Amino acid sequence: MISPRISGAAALLMTLALAGCASNKAPANNTQFDFGPLGAPVAQVTQAPLAAIVVMDVTGSPALENERMMYRLNYADPLQARTYANSRWSANPLILVTQRLKARLAQAGVKVLSATDTTTDVPILRVELDDFSHAFASTAQSEGQLVLRASVFRGHSLLDQKTISRASPAPSADAAGGVRALAASTDAAAADIIAWLAGMNTSMQTGLNAGNNAGTR
């Protein structure tokens, strides 16, 4: 007797295959996706979290250095990474996340600088992307999963580090649904980083003011 779990996984795989989505081969015609227009921020900010920051290019696994779109059938085999065949990112996820993060920081009023800009005493933001995939909990339920680790440096000194995990529900069980979910997770993670930077800046300013007040006594 075939279990409902196995038959469900087989049914979804057959659906993805018929749609041209479950092969690792690159067909001649691909649909390309990105995160779409910037849109309104996920969370409103009353003031810029900090004046300026150097944003380094996001780094991550070699699996994220190409334009393939990954998904996982976690209910069947969470250790197997699969790729959609007829759908690709317009650029690799590391580039897309870098661009979106810079855009969201600029939208929040931060002056975004690159590593080649001449800067003095400006904090540096480094981000490592650990997970960026369309994950299926069942044949009918999936989400865009993103896990990243953000670090802020001043010179060679680490000021703080934070791991951010975001998962947004996918509106459909296909590549297009995964794209929308991952775009939402990326925007949510960017909002988390902005809030974290704001709190860090407040703490640094409080410490600086306390030091100045102590010096005038």
Can you give me a brief rundown of this structure?
This protein is α/β, with parallel strands linked by helices and 217 residues long. The chain contains three helices and nine strands; from the N terminus they run αβββββαββββα. The protein has a single domain (26-35, 51-215), classed as Rossmann fold (3-Layer(aba) Sandwich).
N-to-C order of helices and strands: HEEEEEHEEEEH
* Annotated CATH homologous superfamily: ABC-type transport auxiliary lipoprotein component
Q: Under the CATH scheme, which class?
A: Alpha Beta
Strand content: 25-35%
Derived from helix and strand composition plus strand pairing, the structural class reads alpha/beta
Low-confidence stretches: 17-27, 206-214
Could you tell me the number of beta strands? 9
- Give the assembly state of these chains: single chain
**Major β-sheet annotation:** 9 strands, mixed
Overall mean pLDDT: 86
- Anisotropy-based shape: elongated
Tally of distinct domains: 1
